[in-house]
């Protein structure tokens, strides 16, 4: 009887721990620096994998250039580091197993400068249906023209 009770206690314990093993959560952590070795805060870090329901999890580096993306399912991941003004860095084939913590650091090089120019304003309206000719002149120039067109009194 005691042996049966002990076996059932061990069985219950194994069954209780089975879901925890099935949902083992791993994580990525690391530091992002530029090519001079200075840390880069504000870098967007994305971990993508087909094992994730949402397909991508993201994080942003803190003031010391560190990031952590936790609660990830075991599987193969692609980690992408992006920051404006720098070339993106992609680390492919990073394997997470069980409850592992994988360190994925990145050194980002300065990228090309990109400019975006936004032009706004209304285009002039052109009436293509009307044949009416209109002109606009300044008041001073039209008075001069009228004065020249009148015959002088000495000529009469």
Can you put this structure into words, describing what you see?
It is a single chain. By secondary structure, the chain is an alpha/beta fold. The protein has a domain at 23-108: Sandwich (Immunoglobulin-like). 21% of the residues lie in helices and 31% in strands. The protein is built from two helices and eight strands. It has helices at 2-22, 139-149, and strands spanning 26-34, 44-48, 56-60, 66-72, 75-82, 89-96, 101-103, 106-108. The strands form two sheets. Strands 1, 4, 7 and 8 form a four-stranded mixed sheet that branches. Strands 3-2-5-6 form a four-stranded antiparallel sheet, with no helix packed on it. The longest helix is centred in the N-terminal third of the chain and has 21 residues, at 2-22. The termini are far apart. 11% of the residues are buried.
Specify Rg, calculated over alpha carbons. Answer: 37 Å
Q: Which ranges are low-confidence, i.e. pLDDT below 50, for 5 or more consecutive residues? A: 12-22
Count helical runs: 2
Fourth-tier CATH superfamily name of the domain at 23-108: Immunoglobulins
Give a brief description.
With about 160 residues, the chain is an alpha/beta fold.
SSE blueprint and pairings:
Blueprint: H1 2-22, E1 26-34, E2 44-48, E3 56-60, E4 66-72, E5 75-82, E6 89-96, E7 101-103, E8 106-108, H2 139-149
Parallel strand pairs: 1-7, 1-8
Antiparallel strand pairs: 1-4, 2-3, 2-5, 5-6
